[in-house]
Specification:
With 229 residues, this protein is an alpha+beta fold. It is built from five helices and twelve strands. Strand 3 (71-75) and strand 4 form a beta hairpin. Helix 1 packs antiparallel against helix 2 (29-43). Residues 60-206 form the Oxidoreductase molybdopterin-binding domain.
Amino acid sequence: MDEVEGAPVGRRVVLGMLGLGALGVALGSRAQDKVGDVLAPISGIIPAAGGFRYYTVTSSVPEETAQTYRLEVSGRVAKKRTLTMADLAALPQTSLTRDFQCVTGWRVKDVAWSGVALPDLLDACGADPKAAAITFTSFDGVYTESLTMEQARRRDMLVATSMLGGPVTHDHGGPVRLFTAPMYGYKSLKWLGGIEVVDEVEPGYWELRGYDVDAWVGRSNGRTDAPTS
């Protein structure tokens, strides 16, 4: 997540993260700061200006530049494609401004994003309309996510190439990341490297560790053994 993309942690720690996040929602910014203080030794979070906290699920992530970046689109598509930054820029562009909400409780309001709406990218690649889902992989080699095809067809699902008025930085998951506006941050996969059109939803990295596959902000996160945020 960005956002909870914490380093690999055990179930007990994850439950603690959710509890702290609920406390942050209830008590405000002072409690949110405590959340960061407690998590930092566990997952290597780097507190940052603007309210974002940065997480990774690996000890290091290779850096890609605008010149070296490639996005592989495969699976049930008319033709497999390897997209460069220039290819993405040539597709219809979408901009939106939305809050970024982490499941642990912190929020960054009114973040400006732009890039290619996921439905436009799927259409450009000839995605099979009968396919059920999309899986996403990170070029960190570990992180994965998924959406149903219905979710992926929403106009507020974005293959983001820009945020906050500039390129998506490496720490934010650039040069290209997923932004799932109506969902908690762990669905907005960082360092997007692959998109595959598939026959069924495949639980992602954090879903395999107990998080809800359908992570709509403001709804239950699907867990009965931990508070929601």
